[in-house]
């Protein structure tokens, strides 16, 4: 039975999403972490200013949280990695969920108060940000480290699917809606590409190009070595080509 373009395109954009998640996973795997996905000393040692600032800031936040809960930072990390939630850890240390959330919100508020004082944002924007972050924190303290990783991965997959559809449609010289209609009409990718005068290899190139910049950045920042990145890109290219033109 012929594979419809709808089926193939869904697979292709999923591959693009998986690529983004895989590269993020490789970065975390090769970068020492605090245990909750926070890059640490390796980023600082490599001398990347943005990574250093982020790592130091998150590291300080983790130290502050450990002190608030009355536990050792290493113990806090180990328990998070073991599957405990922040709320559960707090309860075990005699700290209520409400007090935990209040503490976290206060720290976020302090950070954005400083931004207001420095003139980087206005008070109204600060209030909106703090309100949104507070809502997320209510859920986050009840989520395990693995839950947070999975939610982040799912967000990457959704974004990847949407971006992949846009890239594929653009390479075919169509809008996403036009491409979707063609998919639903039962055409194969090869047939649609031929009608549009586009080589399947060009479609593959367009999809690969969408992630090459991110991979190059990861290589520059030392999150993945160049040889492994090239190997992964080659494998992804092969998989996409197979799905576009089986």
List the helices and strands and how they pair.
Blueprint: H1 5-30, H2 41-45, H3 49-69, H4 73-81, H5 86-92, H6 97-117, H7 123-140, H8 145-171, H9 176-184, H10 189-196, H11 200-220, H12 226-244
Helix pairs in contact: 1-8, 1-9, 1-11, 1-12, 3-6, 6-7, 8-11, 11-12
Describe what you observe in this structure.
The protein has 246 residues and is mostly helical. The protein folds into 2 domains: 5-30 and 152-244, no CATH class; 41-148, no CATH class. The protein has helices spanning 5-30, 41-45, 49-69, 73-81, 86-92, 97-117, 123-140, 145-171, 176-184, 189-196, 200-220, 226-244. Helix 1 packs across helix 9, helix 3 (49-69) packs antiparallel against helix 6 (97-117) and helix 6 runs antiparallel to helix 7. The termini are close together.
